[in-house]
Amino acid sequence: MMFDRSTHGGAAIARPLLSILLVLTSLACSRAPEPLSAQTDPRDANAAAETISAADLRVRIGALAHDSMRGRPTPSPELEKAARHIARRFESFGLLPGDGDSYLQTFPLTFSSRGASDGESLTIDGPGGGAIGSEDFIAVPSVSGRATGELRVVDLGAPGVLTGTIALVSVSQSNANAALTSARDLLDAGASGVLFAVDASDQYFEGLRRFFSRERMAVGVPDELIAPTALVRMSSLPAALQSAIGSGGATGQFSASLRTSASFRQDQALNTIGWIEGSDPELRDEYIVFTAHMDHVGVGRPVDGDSIYNGADDDASGTATIIELAEAFASLPTPPRRSLVFMTVSGEENGLLGSAWYAEHPLFPTEETVANINIDMIGRNWEDTVVAIGRDESTLGDMLDRVLEEHAELGLAMIDDPWPEENFYFRSDHFNFARKGVPILFFFTGPHEDYHGPNDEADRILYDKTARIGRLIFFLGIEIANEADRPQWDAAAYRRIVEGAGS
Predict the structure, then answer these.
(1) 389 contact partners, CB below 8 Å, separation of at least 6
(2) How far does the chain reach from its first CA to its final CA, in angstroms?
(3) How many other CB atoms are there within 10 angstroms of residue 95's CB atom?
């Protein structure tokens, strides 16, 4: 995508004295042109920051989290209403549209569900084998079809050639996520089907059954290469096969026949994206992306007669702050040096879907995206404390510390993530930027008793604190945008997050 960027040359000014003309000409030729805006005037920055107000946030969060928005599930008419409302705000501020001439990026969704139970079966052929009872295996909604072949115990790190076989993967509670996301690699290696042998508690296995019994949402369109896939309780397999799995031994004496049934339907959702072009000819082709998710979980189980899960903190607080940031930056007489992108995404509650789509279909080059600042749940808990997850992973943390020192008037204290066991790093949209190599900061004030409940209402937001966090992010954005050098990853964090190589 290309943009027409006009440049304005200075008009020649006639001088009556030739010597003055020669001096001016010499100076012009002897030094490089100054960037249009080396720094943002602090007076302009302070005035713009003051537009991020508790009063504005109260109105914006109140509208997004109103009962009439019915919890903004993905997809829904109410979520689309929110997306289009934000697009109108971006346009009114003078932001450029992010996707061609539109502020809306549409992305496809696929809903999958298990088909008829009489279309599902699993048989193990070999010593002690036979049909596996329906209570001991779970067909994953992947495709309607049948796979037969030799069972091959698979090492996920090096599956080898699996042509004509059914891959057999051992799954425990500790490696379930990694294993269940590996089906694509196994199919690419030639497997005609995949069996995940689950060695976990009955409670965990039944939790998986409930999960896969529900209709599931994924970003994109159905993949025609998906093969029959199922989970099977380890204890239901023949003893010799269990032994082979445990030792990594050969399973040539075992084969399997797996039949699954599934149905699919398609829909779509929206991300809203606007941007401000940077003022520096050298740096305007680099981007800082500010994100928050505008969706929530919709209507759920009633609690004290209330079934609308409003999502005021999660994440109307972040979405409203994105709108406020866009307005504040747009009010600057001269934009910062780098370009600024403001994005509210859908489908975060369903698996970071909108940001996942953007990460694979970026509207601004990923390699030129120097930072992602993500805002999710900044309206509750402490009056003056905020967490910036990822601050120890890149030089963004040092920049944030400088901004906090320079703006003590904000009265904010930064602390490290006090909930490492919750793995919040992997549970919001910054993760899809980090895994693509973009340095990130995730601003967050933590879970509370109303998390994903109908009492996450607008009247429980700490508006003054939310506004001060918004101003902090605004000043940080100016710092990142005007800094000569890009933010840099910590080497160990890069290996762990981007390369997946561990610390």
Answers:
(1) 417, 424, 425, 430, 441, 442, 444
(2) 37
(3) 23
**Domain for residue 341, yes or no?**
yes
β-bridge mates for residue 102, sequence order: 99
The residue from 260, 293, 315 where one domain ends is 260
Question: pTM higher than 0.70, yes or no?
Answer: yes
Residues 244 and 348 both lie in one domain = no
CATH code where residue 139 lies: 3.50.30.30
Q: What CA–CA distances, in Å, run from 43 to 36, 39, 50, 162, 327?
A: 18, 12, 11, 65, 17
- C-alpha to C-alpha distance for 123 and 382, rounded to whole angstroms: 56
DSSP string across 356-367: HHHHHS-SS-GG
Three-class SS of 419-456:
CHHHCHHHCCCHHHHHCCCCCEEEEECCCCCCCCCCCC
Kindly state the tokens that stand for 497.
């997050």
DSSP classification of residue 459: G
Contact 122, 132 (CB under 8 A): yes
327 and 421 together in one domain: yes
Give the residues of the chain that fall short of pLDDT 70: 1-38, 116-117, 157-158, 174-182, 222-225, 248-251, 501-503
Residue 482, token pair as written in the block? 């005007």
| DSSP state at residue 476 | H
Residues 289 and 205 in one domain: no
Structural domain count, the chain: 2
**Nearest residue to 95 (alpha-carbon basis) of 315, 325, 354, 320:** 325
**Domain, as residue range, for 309:** 42-110+268-497
CB 278 within 8 A of CB 470: no
**DSSP bridge partners of 440:** 372
User: How confident is the model at residue 218, as a pLDDT?
Assistant: 86
**Residue 56's CATH number:** 3.40.630.10
Please name which of 319, 256, 250, 262 lies closest in space to residue 290, comparing C-alpha atoms. Answer: 319
Give how far the C-alpha of residue 230 lies from the chain's centroid of Cα atoms, to the nearest Å. 28
CA separation (Å) from 478 to 274, 325, 488?
A: 17, 11, 17
